[in-house]
Amino acid sequence: MDYKKEENLRRGPWLEEEDERLVKFVTLLGERRWDSLARVSGLKRSGKSCRLRWMNYLNPSLKRGPMSLEEETIIFQLHAFWGNKWSKIARRLPGRTDNEVKNYYRTHFRKKLEGQNYDKIIDWSRNTGEDLLRKYKETEITWTRTTTQEHGFDKTVKESKQMNMESDKETCGGIFERESFGVMKSPYENRISDWISEISTDQSDANVLEERTSSSSENNININVGSWWFQETRDIEEFSCSLWS
DNA sequence: AATGGCCCCAACCGCCGTTTC
DNA sequence: AGAAACGGCGGTTGGGGCCAT
Fold it and tell me: Mind listing the domains of chain A with CATH numbers?
């Protein structure tokens, strides 16, 4: 349905009675056929508007309240991999919407990262997968320090942790170890750990392949295996879509 | 108390891929 | 097979609330 063609449609904030009516009809007809649902319900709203209101606000499975530290971590880390794929990121956060994630990122992270030249740190097109993962981990450490401060963690502990990061690499695997100062990993972080370790495994394979390619013919066209690897693994969804189930 | 600036977030827009007829 | 309808996505906007001056 085209908004411009439907001049008598209501726009702007939803009234309480509109919400009630929408909930009633979605319960009755299901989350589909939004245009016909909008018509049948008598709401003077477009199907799109109804869908959006339900998806972003009325759906009972939505989580309310501020983002947890775990959710912040996931948003940041997945954004580092996928970029502005808000719906994809939101799928990793049960009860959160793409709109919410997008707004959250814009208001909370972008400002912080602008100050840290984030866009320059992560240059998707010019780095190998290995570079990207390393640089990503570096930004993660910096970011962790800022947010943990905000959340009341002890700054000194985290900073000394960061200095040991190089030697910790093997055990850390890129995910900060909060167990070491008394906070257990959440299920969110465990899943992130799993994703990252799967990525690392794939990357090792890619690096082996890269070595073989370059040693066999040094003057060949440069095939950036690292980038290939990263391209593939940016679509983690392909092999981990059931993580939340 | 008034006001201007900023932040936050719900809602809208336009585009595009998919599904339905 | 092709047109229309539908649904999903990312970017943008506008208004309410908060805070500093």
Answer: 3-58 (1.10.10.60), 69-240 (no CATH)
